[in-house]
Specification:
Blueprint (H helix, E strand, L loop, with lengths): L3 E6 L3 H16 L3 E2 L8 E6 L4 H20 L4 E6 H5 L1 H7 L5 E3 L7 H10 L4 E3 L20 E5 L1 E2 L10 H5 L3 E2 L2 H13 L4 E5 L7 E2 L2 E2 H9 L6 E5 L8 H9 L6 E3 L7 H6 L6 H14 L4 E8 L6 H14 L3 E6 L7 H5 L6 H24 L5 E10 L2 E9 L4 E4 L1 H6 L6 H4 L6 E9 L3 E6 L1
Parallel strand pairs: 1-2, 1-3, 3-4, 4-5, 5-6, 7-10, 10-13, 14-15, 15-16, 19-21
Antiparallel strand pairs: 8-9, 11-12, 17-18, 17-20, 18-19, 20-21
Bound molecules: S-adenosyl-L-homocysteine (SAH) and FE3-S4 cluster.
The site of FE3-S4 cluster has 10 residues, from helix 6.
C-alpha cells in the first residue's frame, strides 16, 4: 500500500524549500502526501537550530506527537534538518520514540532510512555532511502558488561567532548557473510568477565565472517570471555592478534584506562580521539615496556577549539613521560549537536582553510606521497572493518593495476605475498597479487603478 507522508516545517525559507525537496524525493520513491498528521504513515518534522527557543519548541511538538506514535507503533516519526544535525544525541536519548534523525545533507537517503526504520527498532541516524550535495537534478514538490523558492547556495563559510549555520548546514556550495536558470524556467512553466533565490550569503555567489549580478540577469530573462527576489545578501558584497543591476532590472523586487546584527563596530568585530557600522551605514544610505524606491529590512541581535549599554545605543542610533522598513530582532542565544559559545560567556542578563529588545522593537515599529506612511499617495505594483484573512472580499499581496498590501476593490469601483464587480476580481498571480490610500505599521491599504 502507498504510504503517506506529512511534513511539518519550522524555521526559515530555506527550510520551506528543503521540505519541498524532501517531498519531491519521497514522491519519486512512491510515497503519497498526507494532509495532516492523523492521516500519515510517516511524519517528518523539519527543524531549526538557530536559537535555543526554536529547539525547545520542537521538543514540545515531539511530546505532543508521542501519543500518536504509541497508538500506532507502525507510524514512522522523523526529525530532519538543522536540529537533527545539532542535537542528534539528545534526540536519540530524550525522544527515543523518534525513528529517523536526518541532517540537511541526508535527504536523498530518506526513503531508505524510512524503509530501515520500519524494520528496525532503533533510530536510524544519518547526519553526514557533504561538501558537494546541492540536490542538483532532484525535483522539488511545491504547493501550487505565486512564489517559488530556488536554493542557489547551501551552507555558509562566514563563521560569524554566534551562528550555528556553518556547523549544521556545512560548507558553502552553489548551484551552477545553468541549473538555477532551468529550475526557474520550470517554475515559470508551472505557473509561478515570482521566484525567490535562497542562500545564506547569496551576494557571494560566484560559479563558473558567473557573479550574483550576472545570475540575476539570467534569471530576470526567464519568460513568465514577473518578479525576482533573493535572500539574504551579505553586506560586504555590494559592488557597483550589483547595485547597478538591481537598479536597472525592472522585475527585481524593490527590497533588500541586509542583516546588520549590531550598530557597534566593536561588537561587529567580535562577531567576525566583515564590516564596520560605518561601512554598513554607507551602503544603506547609498541605497536610500540612489535607489529610494527600495525597502530595506534587517536582522539585529541584542545582548551579544559583552554588549554594553553604549554598544546597544549605537544599534539604536544606526536603526534610527537607516530607518529600516522592517526588522527581525532577536535576543542572543548561545549555540554550542560556535566560537562565541567557546570563548565568550553569555554575560548579558536575560532581563537586560529583554529590556533592550523592547526598546529596539519600539523604535523599529516607529520606523516601520513612518516608512509605510511615506508611501501614501504613491503607486505600488502588487503581486496578488491571496485574500485578507479579516475580509475575504479583499485581495492581498506584496508590493514590489515587499510591503504586505490589502487591496480595496469596493473603493476602486467608487473611483470609477471599473464598474463590474466580477471584472474586478483579482486572482492570485496577477500583478496590479494600485494607489496607496492608507498605512499601518505592517500593512498598506491600496486601491487598484
Ligand atoms: N545569512 C544571514 C543569517 C542567517 S541566520 C546573514 O547574512 O547574516 C538568521 C538570523 O538569525 C541572523 O541574521 C541573526 O540575526 C539571527 N541569529 C543567528 N544566530 C543567532 C543566535 N545565536 N542568537 C540570536 N540570533 C541569532
Ligand atoms: Fe550565520 Fe553569518 Fe553565515 S550569520 S549563516 S555564519 S553569514
Amino acid at each position: 500500500m502507498t504510504r503517506r507522508v506529512y511534513i511539518e516545517t519550522y524555521g526559515c525559507q530555506m527550510n520551506v524549500a528543503d521540505s519541498e525537496l524532501m517531498s519531491g524525493i519521497l514522491a519519486d520513491s512512491g510515497f503519497a502526501t498526507a494532509d495532516n498528521e492523523r492521516d500519515a504513515d510517516v511524519i517528518l518534522i523539519n527543524t531549526c537550530a538557530i536559537r535555543e527557543k526554536a529547539e525547545d519548541r520542537i521538543f514540545g511538538r515531539l511530546g505532543w506527537l508521542k501519543p500518536l506514535k504509541m497508538e500506532r507503533p507502525e507510524l514512522v516519526l522523523g526529525v530532519t534538518g538543522c536540529m537533527a544535525e545539532h542535537l542528534r544525541d539528545q534526540l536519540a536519548s530524550k525522544t527515543p520514540y523518534v525513528d529517523v534523525i536526518a541532517g540537511p545533507d541526508a535527504y536523498r537517503r530518506l526513503p531508505a532510512l524510512i524503509e530501515q526504520a520500519t524494520r528496525d527498532d532503533s533510530a536510524m541516524i544519518d547526519v553526514r555532511l557533504d561538501r558537494e550535495e546541492l540536490y542538483a537534478g532532484q525535483r522539488s514538490q511545491r504547493a501550487r502558488g505565486v512564489s517559488g523558492f530556488v536554493t542557489i547556495m547551501r551552507g555558509c563559510d562566514k563563521f560569524c561567532t554566534f551562528c550555528i549555520v556553518p556547523y549544521v548546514r556545512g560548507r558553502e556550495r552553489s548551484l551552477p548557473p545553468d541549473l538555477v536558470v532551468s529550475e526557474v524556467r520550470e517554475l515559470a512553466e508551472q505557473g509561478f510568477k515570482e521566484v525567490v533565490l535562497l542562500g545564506q550569503t547569496v551576494s557571494s555567489y560566484a560559479v563558473d565565472g558567473v557573479s550574483f549580478a550576472e545570475l540575476l540577469r539570467r534569471v530576470h530573462a526567464v519568460d513568465g517570471i514577473e518578479r525576482v527576489r533573493f535572500t539574504s545578501p551579505y553586506p560586504t558584497d555590494f559592488d557597483d555592478e550589483l547595485l547597478q543591476t538591481l537598479a536597472e532590472l525592472p522585475k527585481i523586487g524593490r527590497h533588500l534584506h541586509l542583516p546588520v546584527q549590531s550598530g557597534s563596530t566593536r561588537v561587529l568585530e567580535d562577531m567576525r562580521r566583515q564590516y564596520s557600522a560605518e561601512q554598513f551605514l554607507e551602503l544603506a544610505l547609498r541605497v536610500r539615496r540612489e535607489m529610494p524606491e527600495f525597502g530595506i529590512s534587517t536582522d539585529i541581535i541584542v545582548g551579544y556577549p559583552g554588549e554594553d549599554e553604549q554598544d546597544f545605543e549605537k544599534t539604536l542610533e544606526l536603526s534610527r539613521t537607516v530607518e529600516f522598513d522592517s526588522a527581525f530582532m532577536f535576543k542572543y542565544s548561545e549555540r554550542s560549537m560556535t566560537a562565541a559559545a567557546r570563548k565568550r560567556p553569555d554575560d548579558v542578563p536575560e532581563a537586560v536582553k529583554s529590556e533592550r529588545l523592547s526598546r529596539l522593537i519600539a523604535l523599529q515599529n516607529e520606523s516601520s510606521r513612518k516608512r509605510h506612511a511615506r508611501l501614501v499617495g504613491q503607486h505600488v505594483d502588487v503581486l496578488v497572493d491571496g485574500v485578507n484573512p479579516r475580509d475575504e472580499a479583499q485581495p492581498k499581496g506584496r508590493s514590489s518593495c515587499f510591503k504586505s498590501t490589502m487591496l480595496d476593490l469596493s473603493s476602486s469601483s467608487r473611483h470609477g476605475a471599473a464598474t463590474d464587480g466580477a471584472a474586478l476580481a483579482l486572482a492570485p498571480g496577477q500583478l496590479v498597479r494600485a494607489r496607496v490610500e492608507g498605512s499601518a505599521t505592517h500593512t498598506l491599504f491600496a486601491v487598484p487603478l
